[in-house]
Amino acid sequence: MSRSQPLCPAADLPPGTTRKFIFTYEGIRREGFAANVRGHLVAYENACRHIPIPLDDDGDFFTTDGEFFICRTHGAIYEPLNGRCIHGPCGGLSLKPLRVVDVQGELWVVLPDEPPAE
Ligand code: FES
């Protein structure tokens, strides 16, 4: 059974915008972000694959042309639809994906299942 948490009304995430959120996984508080990429909803953990620090400075995930996500620290460029780094020090690695679903006009983030307790 997947875990999920509310994000926002779908109308509050129009194309070209992002929204950050907090979630927990493996007992660790983490930050994620959801984005509307030309009508496609995506979400990832907000951690660069080069050094695990947030990609953004202040919610500014997209490149100026709106085509890619960019890490503001060292400039890694990520494909927004699949999270793959296509330029920069983490080339070939991918952002850790989450999932966003639209339930009757409300967006929910679907979180990974917690690993079983040992
Ligand atoms: S921390 Fe993102 S490119 Fe270095």
Can you put this structure into words, describing what you see?
This protein has no helices and nine strands. Strand 6 and strand 7 form a beta hairpin. It is 0% helix and 43% strand. The mean pLDDT is 95. The two termini are 19 Å apart. It is globular. The chain has one domain (3-111): Rieske Iron-sulfur Protein. It is mainly beta. It has a six-stranded antiparallel beta sheet, with no helix packed on it. Bound molecules: FE2/S2 (inorganic) cluster. FE2/S2 (inorganic) cluster (FES) is lined by residues 48, 50-51, 53, 71, 73-76, 88-89.
Mean of residue pLDDT values: 95
β-sheet strand percentage = 35-45%
Strand order of the largest sheet: 1-9-8-4-3-2
CATH fold annotation: Rieske Iron-sulfur Protein
Count of spatially separate domains: 1
Write the topology of this structure.
Elements: E1 3-9, E2 18-25, E3 28-37, E4 40-45, E5 69-70, E6 77-78, E7 85-87, E8 97-103, E9 106-111
Antiparallel strand pairs: 1-9, 2-3, 3-4, 4-8, 5-6, 6-7, 8-9
Q: In summary, what is this structure?
A:
With 118 residues, the protein is mainly beta. It has strands spanning 3-9, 18-25, 28-37, 40-45, 69-70, 77-78, 85-87, 97-103, 106-111.
Name the descriptors.
118 residues, mainly beta, Rieske Iron-sulfur Protein, three-stranded antiparallel beta sheet, 0% helix, globular, binds FE2/S2 (inorganic) cluster
